[in-house]
Specification:
The longest helix has 43 residues. The protein has 23 helices and ten strands. A hairpin with a 2-residue loop joins strand 4 and strand 5. The chain has two domains: 347 residues, Up-down Bundle (ABC transporter transmembrane region fold); 240 residues, 3-Layer(aba) Sandwich (Rossmann fold), CATH 3.40.50. It is of the alpha/beta class. The strands form two sheets. A six-stranded mixed β-sheet has the order 6-7-8-3-9-10, sandwiched between helices.
């Protein structure tokens, strides 16, 4: 477990090494000050209870416990002789206050210096995840639930902050405290300390019995939280359908069931965590009592230890019990963080097969033609069933090509291959004779504009939605694009004109208005290749007329590939390709295909009726 923990932290610790180094230094200072401040208790006890009647002689200072203790007692006796017992008591109390102030100050500094590390690591993970989500292929999101991805970026990252990065502080602070305290305990009485160490394996075993299954249970809890987020996302997106089919109770029952599973699993994990403190408290008390027995035996038999030193030993031993408990708490927290990090790594370490080539060919413009050559494609998890089968298509510059066919015939899949949302499995796609796999993705997509059936807008202003992806656009250019898209009038009628917020996914706009904003965005980008994916199929007659006018302006002087269910919108295409079960079965102009009397004519006749 610790090996995996340090491996994960090693990925993010480099920018924050100075904070870790500062924390280690300050923790050492804090712990040694703690030991020395408690050492002042011994002479205080000697003075108050007059338990030491020995007369000490000064010895040459050396790294020997007996010599150091002898000289400390000699110096204290000298002060008592010169200034009296109460004066020495005041001095020792003041020394204890000063040492405690320095100790608590360095302790606070050691904790405060780790805050930039904890918050920085969590920020870095979030940014990495967001960047990876932006760059992963579309296929990844068809296999993953959106709510689960949101859960990984929110609750799982929060769990990493709570469990892993917070544990780093404990895993620095507590081992240092344990090391310093045990060095002091060995210095006071190595015999008693050996007895303490012999009892330690019992505590380790007790901790292990509780933490053993914690990681697996924690991972299940986070998975259930992802399921809750998924169901919530589906509910918010499908409220209209839920209400229309009077399915509120059904959805509520499903949500309650998922929440009960989450609650049961979470309760199990919390119960195990709650057992950490009482178990370590009990084990610590057992060790203290055991030492009390052994130490009492030493004192009663005059075995190289007096009462004051034994009390000091117990104080230091009790001091080390708390770091051991905190250390055990880290052991309980770390498995939860590791489980969340496993789920985060499913995104961070996901393979992205769609990448730039090592030596990309230049692709600055579209000059001649786009060619689809012998292309076949199957989605992952489809058991090899091909959506496209040996498709061949050539689109000359400035021409308009229309794709028609029944749902599932492969039209949208074909146009998704052009900007490399997916990669072809067989065959190749060429732009001006260059395989699109041999050019930079950014160069390829800069040549292509999209207007989809569902207008994808953002919760921002009209201006920012139109200029999305276009740098340094002027207001004059934005207004010109909006006018061409038949969008300028309704934009100016809004409360703040182009600075009006349009709501989540453009929710404050009608379907036709949303589509015209997306067309204005494509016009401003001014791409040489345009893909229209059923851009008017979801609109009413009036909205369709306005959008169709905007599309016709957009298509002028551009190479266009249009997917259409309404054949009336593509009558004037230079070539119409009819797809059926992944193959092009007919091609030609509208008049030529009608004259053939084949599949296209049947589609046309059904729509005419």
């Amino acid at each position: 477990m610790l090996k995996q923990f340090f491996s994960i932290m090693g990925r993010y610790v480099k920018p924050y090494k100075k904070y870790l180094a500062g924390s280690i230094l300050l923790n050492f200072v804090s712990q040694w000050l703690s030991v020395f401040s408690f050492a002042a208790i011994v002479p205080i006890l000697q003075i108050l209870f007059k338990v030491d009647n020995n007369v000490y002689e000064y010895q040459e200072l050396a790294l020997d416990k007996d010599v150091i203790i002898n000289d400390a007692y000699w110096y204290t006796q000298q002060l008592i002789v010169e200034h009296g017992q109460f004066y020495v008591l005041l001095m020792m109390g003041a020394l204890l206050i000063v040492m405690t102030l320095l100790r608590t100050g360095s302790y606070f500094a050691s904790s405060a210096i780790m805050i930039p590390f904890r918050t920085g690591v969590v920020r870095d993970i979030r940014i990495q995840m967001y960047e990876k989500v932006l760059r992963l292929p579309m296929a990844f999101f068809s296999e993953e639930r959106k709510g689960d991805i949101v859960a990984r970026m929110s609750s799982d990252v929060q769990m990493v902050e709570h469990s892993l990065t917070s544990s780093v502080d404990m895993l620095i602070k507590n081992p240092i405290a344990i090391l310093v305290c045990f060095c002091t305990l060995f210095f006071i009485s190595w015999q008693l300390t050996v007895v303490v160490l012999l009892t330690a394996p019992v505590m380790v075993w007790a901790m292990g019995t509780v933490t053993r299954k914690l990681k697996r249970k924690s991972k299940f809890v986070q998975e259930q939280w992802g399921q809750i987020m998924t169901e919530l996302d589906e509910t918010l997106g499908g409220l209209r359908v839920i209400k229309a089919f009077i399915a509120e109770n059904k959805m509520l029952a499903r949500f309650v069931k998922t929440n009960n599973v989450y609650r049961d699993a979470s309760s199990s994990v919390s119960t195990r965590q709650a057992s950490a403190h009482p178990m370590s408290e009990f084990m610590g008390t057992c060790i203290i009592v055991f030492v009390l027995w052994v130490g009492g035996f030493f004192i009663l038999h005059d075995y190289n230890m007096d009462a004051a030193m034994f009390i000091y030993y117990l104080v230091i031993l009790y001091t080390v019990i708390n770091p051991i408990k905190e250390f055990s708490k880290a052991f309980y927290n770390v498995p939860q963080g590791l489980a969340s990090m496993d789920r985060i790594d499913m995104i961070l370490k996901a393979e992205n097969p769609i990448a730039d080539p090592a030596n990309p060919q230049p692709l600055d413009n579209f000059e001649k033609s786009l060619e689809v050559r012998n292309v076949s494609f199957a989605y992952a998890g489809s058991d090899g069933r091909k959506v496209l089968k040996n498709v061949n298509l050539t689109v000359e510059k400035g021409k308009t090509i229309a794709l028609v066919g029944q749902s599932g015939s492969g039209k949208s899949t074909l146009v998704d291959l052009l900007p490399r949302y997916h990669d072809v499995h067989e065959g190749e796609i060429l732009i001006d004779g260059k395989n699109i796999k041999d050019v930079r993705i950014a160069d390829l997509r800069s040549l292509i504009g999209n207007v989809n059936q569902e207008a994808i807008l953002f919760n921002d202003t009209f201006y920012n939605n139109i200029t999305f992806g276009v740098e340094n656009a002027t207001m004059e250019e934005v207004i010109a694009a909006a006018k061409i898209a038949n969008a300028h009038e309704f934009i100016m009628e809004s409360e703040h004109g182009y600075d009006t917020m349009i709501g989540d996914r453009g929710g404050r706009l009608s379907g036709g208005q949303r589509q015209r904003i997306s067309i204005a965005r494509a016009i401003l980008k001014n791409p040489p290749i345009l893909i229209l994916d059923e851009a008017t199929s979801a609109l009413d007659t009036e909205s369709e007329r306005l959008v169709q006018e905007a599309l016709e302006r957009l298509m002028k002087s551009r190479t266009t590939i249009a997917i259409a269910h309404r054949l009336s919108t593509i009558r004037h295409a230079d070539e119409i390709c009819v797809l059926f079960e992944g193959e092009i079965v007919e091609r030609g102009t509208h008049e030529e295909l009608i004259a053939k009397g084949g599949y296209y004519k049947r589609l046309n006749d059904m729509q005419t009726l």
